Amino acid sequence: MKYSIAIDGPAGAGKSTVAKLAAKRLGIPYLDTGAMYRATAVACKRHGIDVTDWEAVRAFLPQLKLEVRYLDSGEQRMLADGEDITHLLRTEDISQGASLVSMIPEVRDALVELQRDVAHRQAVIMDGRDICTNVLSDTPHKFFITASAEERANRRVKQLVEQGQPADYETILADIIRRDRQDSERAYMPLVCKEDTVKIDTTNLTIDEAVEALLQGVCE
């Protein structure tokens, strides 16, 4: 396979899970672009930088050294300054921080270059917020994976409970709605589903059904 597959969609819709399983079925690498923004938020936090202070984040960018590595199993790991920080990426505050830092045009431009570099060197499947509309806008294989905010909140609650972490449905739902608004209303490269993109609503789909819908779209 010499083409790349682009997936956009809101947080918690199942993009990453579907992309990983589809990548395995197709035998191509998976790149979690959201992990790059989360890693940027982690790096900012470690250096005492407020992600709402755009000037401070811009000034920090030249020092930001992110790297993507893959284990033999195919699992993606994120490194900052040579240290594996993957275990720090999935907390609620980093999720919000990633959404905020992604609003900064210079951050998006810097990370987009890394993402395109991967796609130029090999076939790849990647998901994020502006993969279809910006990063891989020329690929014929574009998908928008979504689900209702309520279903995404339920999924997140279940995930946190399984991890033994506190989970309040109303708080999580409010966070999801706020992040959706931030992603869709930001001035630079907002989250949108364009006409040339296949929309897959996973609200009432199993993961396997969502994967099959994507693979069917790739083969058409």
Commentary on this structure:
The chain has 220 residues and is α/β, with parallel strands linked by helices. Helix content is 50%, strand content 15%. It has 9 helices and 8 strands. The strands form 2 sheets. The protein has a 5-stranded parallel beta sheet, sandwiched between helices. A hairpin with a 2-residue loop joins strand 4 and strand 5. Helix 1 crosses helix 9, helix 2 packs across helix 4 and helix 7 crosses helix 8. The mean pLDDT is 92.
In short, what is this structure?
The protein is built from 9 helices and 8 strands. It has 220 residues and is of the alpha/beta class.
Query: What oligomeric assembly is this protein in?
Result: single chain
Q: What does the radius of gyration come to? A: 17 Å
Kindly state the percentage of residues in helix: 40-55%
What overall form do the CA principal axes indicate? globular
The tally of strands reads 8
Number of contiguous helices: 9
Cα distance, first to last residue?
15 Å
Low-confidence stretches: none
Which class best fits the helix and strand makeup?
Answer: alpha/beta
Task: State the major sheet.
Answer: 5 strands, parallel
Q: State the strand order across the main sheet.
A: 2-6-1-7-8
Secondary-structure element order, as H and E?
EHEHHEEEHHEHEHHEH
Instruction: Report the average pLDDT across residues.
Output: 92
**Beta-strand content:** 5-15%
